[in-house]
Amino acid sequence: MMIPDKAPKENVFHSSDGLKKEAHISSFEKYKELYVKSIENPDEFWGDIAKDFFWKTKHTGQFLSYNFDVTKGEIFVKCMEGASTNICYNLLDHNIHEKKLGEKVAFFWEGNDPGDELTVTYRELLQKVCQFANVLKSQGVKKGDRVSIYMPMVVELVVAMLACIRIGAVHSIVFAGFSAESLCERILDSQCTLLITADGFYRGDKLINLKLLADEALQKCRDKGFPVEKCIMLKHLSKEPEEILGSQSPPAKRSCPDLQVPWNPDVDLCWHTLISGASDECEPEWCGSEDPLFILYTSGSTGKPKGVLHTVSGYMLYTATTFKLVFDHQPDDVYWCTADIGWITGHSYITYGPLANGATSVLFEGLPTYPDVSRMWEIVDKYHVTKFYTAPTAIRMLMKHGNEPVHKYKRESLKILGTVGEPINPEAWLWYYNVVGEQRCPIVDTFWQTETGGHVLTPLPAATPMKPGSATFPFFGVVPAILNESGEELEGPNEGYLVFKQPWPGVMRTVYRNHQRFETTYFKKFPGYYVTGDGCRRDKDGYYWITGRIDDMLNVSGHLLSTAEVESALVEHEAVSEAAVVSRPHPVKGESLYCFVTLIDGVSYNRELEGELKKQVREKIGAIATPDHIQNAPGLPKTRSGKIMRRVLRKIACGDKDLGDISTLADSSVVDQLFQNRCCAGV
Questions:
Q1: What pLDDT, on a 0 to 100 scale, did the predictor assign at position 257?
Q2: Taking the domains of the chain in order of start, what are their residue ranges?
Q3: Of 43, 135, 209, 322, which one is least surrounded by beta carbons within 10 A?
């Protein structure tokens, strides 16, 4: 992969000279020099970075060994074989004892409601983590065991995940917006021995009874023959009797007398009662470089979520390095990533990357529009945030409310802005740059995936001239290519499949308990390459532009959803015989779910049924998967072999009658009927 000798100077945006003076990488020439080193001499490049961390034992041999070609045997990636360490030790103990950061703020926690706040230093965080690590050990959790975490955005969520890795347990965090069915499915697949949850939380004005959902999930697990013996519940909102929650329970952060917390004394344990007698000292479990670190589930094109497995050393090095260089982290920064820890962005760029660099971060429980649409900028001013990282969906949503809510606050502390989750459209990029950043803050438009562990295509804020909507160039150690349908590499300006030619330290190692699926999903289509599933365009200047998913996946508000998973949820309704789901452009979310359902004979489509179907999807997957539109489809456009022509359905969803070649349709009259029903649906 060729990096241009010099980045273009026209039709691009440049960072300020002031930012360049203090930057880790201050010019495009320096970026290019280091990039070439990272590709041609990765052992030296990553070996120098590894010196900043603590290793119980050193690695031997090659820094990275791998096979990306399914025709040459089993796919594997191994990093720093022979080395051992503990990530929790590096994130906390090493920063406290070696870098003297004990009294530095690790997190400013900002609750759902303004004024609900907490400050936690690195020393305090270590004490809390050690206490809870000892709690987990007292419940029989040991190295290699899987622990499921289903919690809102509270400091205790970070404590729980770090406590797991301190004792060598493998955490599997499930986004608190997912349904009981989704939680159950993930517990069963990862064979988790213990669940950690909370009583409930608010999303804006909406109360979520999380413990009730957790109990439903555990009952489903029991019904399927896998009882989870223990559930530890954090008291976040409720005021329950002392005999239930224990005498050590502190006052709730926000009292909610209407929250009825189910309690099973044979299974449930109170977080506060357990830690009250726990020691705040806990020796770390030293783990091998390729020992499992965490499992995080992402939607699969088959409908069954994939348990993406990351391992210890490579993930630690890669998230730490990407955070440091992509956000140009400086010691006095206050960094804020608005994501949820239930997604990979929260893993890599709220917890692991920032803490590895001794950063101070904002941890936010609430919504960007609650109690009003100025909330984000109020928080930026309150904590003097310097580096701000959010999703294009949030930017487009705030754009709708105009400039005035932004201008209510100064935002003078901001130095760098970032986007994550999906490609950002140029209009939103320019609003973000001109209005939020007042033309002084470079925007790092980052492309990466749950599977990549960290940024793989991204600008570096002081080095890369920016083009609105482009993820620009590869990060160090990453070698992208664009292939055509025949698997041939395309040179120069072109468009096709985005793939990577060799591994980087943070890439996933397997799909948990299903290595064959790992090989089939990412390496079978084009042997010798990691296949992202995304389309990509490279322009005449060598810049990369992500064009969207090529497989049967949707990107809704920055979160990948499987069309097959939504279709499966729809057809479980007794009235539905067949379903097909496609994407439809959405001005805020990027893409929305447009569903076609074929009903069984004798059933009529009406608003009541539509409501039931939307509820079914919410309950099976979660609120984020709720369809925007459901259309009655007496028939679906299929080829003579029975394959649904989703290309045609996408055209119908958008009202576009330029269908192209439909000569392979078994019954073209179906298309006319679907267009008629679309008009009746009022969309």
A1: 59
A2: 89-288, 553-680
A3: 43
CATH pick for 553-680 out of 3.30.300.30, 1.20.1560.10, 3.30.70.260, 3.60.20.10: 3.30.300.30
Question: In b/e form, how buried is each residue of 80-112, taking b as 16+ CB within 10 angstroms?
Answer: bbebbbbbbbbbbbbbbeeeebbebbbbbbbbb
Residue in the block written with tokens 């004979």: 601
Tell me, which fold does domain 89-288 have in CATH?
Rossmann fold (3.40.50)
| Rounded average pLDDT over 442-460 | 98
Q: What is the pLDDT of residue 679?
A: 46
* DSSP-assigned letter for residue 374: T
On whether the CB atoms of residues 166 and 160 are closer than 8 A, the answer is no
When pLDDT is cut at 50, 70 and 90, the band that residue 76 belongs to is: very high
CB 82 within 8 A of CB 57: yes
Direct distance between the N- and C-terminal alpha carbons of the chain, in angstroms, rounded to an integer: 45
Alpha helices of 98-209 — where are they, by DSSP H?
A: 122-138, 155-166, 180-190
623-682 pLDDT, tens digit per residue, is: 889 999 999 998 888 866 566 888 889 899 998 888 876 766 778 889 989 998 884 444
Residue tagged 């419940």 (tokens): 139
Whole-angstrom Cα distance, residue 53 to residue 49?
8
Decide: pTM greater than 0.85.
Answer: yes
Residues 6+ apart with CB under 8 A from 495: 482, 535, 536, 537, 538, 547
